[in-house]
Amino acid sequence: MAPPLVVLEHIRLIDGTGAAPVPDAALVIEGTRIRWCGPAAQLPDAPDLRSAPRVDLRGRTVCPGFIDAHVHFALPGPAGHPVLGAAEPVTYRALKVIERLRTTLHNGVTTARDLMGLDAGFRRAVAERRIAGPRLLVAIAMLSQTAGHADFRLPSGIDGLATAVAFPGSPSGIVDTVDDMRTRVRALVAAGADCIKLATSGGVTSPHDRPEWLGLRPEMVRAAVEEAQAYGGLRVAVHAIGEPGIAAAVRAGVHSIEHGYALTDDLRAEMAERGQFLVPTLLETLAEPDPAQVGPHIHAKAVRWHRVAQESFARSVDAGVSVVMGTDAGLTAPHGQNLKELGLMVRFGGMTPLDAIRAATADAARLCGVDDFTGTLAAGKTADLVVCGTDPLADIDALGDPAHVHAVVKDGHIAIDRAGALSSSGLPDLP
Hints:
The protein is α/β, with parallel strands linked by helices. The chain has helices at residues 47-51, 90-106, 120-127, 160-164, 178-190, 218-230, 243-252, 265-274, 282-285, 291-294, 296-318, 340-349, 353-359, 362-368; strands at 5-13, 22-30, 33-39, 54-56, 61-64, 66-71, 109-114, 135-138, 142-143, 195-199, 235-240, 256-259, 277-279, 322-323, 385-388, 405-410, 413-417.
């Protein structure tokens, strides 16, 4: 049977490369791939295209499917407290993850990098279309030394991450020697990790560590980078907020700095020269924790560092650091509101809406190592696309409202079609 063939016409095309939009364009989906896209006047006059279903999108804007390079689907966001997971059966926690995956996909994210929590089983289930969700890249665990950001052992002896967040069989996140680091990275590779997540500084809302601390010694970071490179060049993403942790990560040659709140001008220059990426997670900085729940000390820490983050970001953009969209959804940011990050990159960083879209598509795909098949709208790429009900270049904040995400297509399958825009397309539905 021939793969489904459909022509989307009368669209405004934003291809993700940063190029100006094409005001009257067409896009041809053949099976799971894009066969052709470009100005409507240049659409090939092929016999099968003449007889293919044509869908008039009436001037709607079509963008590539968006990529969130920093999420935590195992965490509940403001809907609950992570510690509650310790009291829940693993199967119940998994079902809640499935709902978060579906919500995120339906709101425009077709690829997501989970940087601690999910194991490779979720990735496989999504890839086999057993459950609906963004295409997944998983780090499985976050690695730090004792008293670092991955050390959530409570005074009672309970390991909060192991019992409330991680799924059974996931490697521990605590490493204390160079040899431990090499062994643990190999264990993550064996468990199916797509990337390696380290924490070289403490966190903002975590109870026992501080952003100013160096949470992983430089020689251990270098060992992780070496091991990841040896196993197919896996990307290394590093939670780094304070200056010592950022410096250790940048100079060890990691691929991305996650958060990067205390970046200095010298470190920005180094990142730009090395081609390292910054994933600023601005959405997370909008949520202040409840002092009644976390205590006044953690609340004050969060307020301080969130302001630092917002004030620092524009200087990183001005310094030429490559920026990629990531939200930290699941920590304090809710799942499904990922595209609000686009407006925040414009608001706090002075980026143009077109640059913000590129940061969430083509540039995010490069960071994640998936740019050979997704991240832009071009012939041969996977048919991942978002049909917008508004012009995102005129109102980038509107994409944060699901009502303006009229349809989402992933791998040539309709994930959601809120406005009925694709009802006559004949494209298959995702589960």
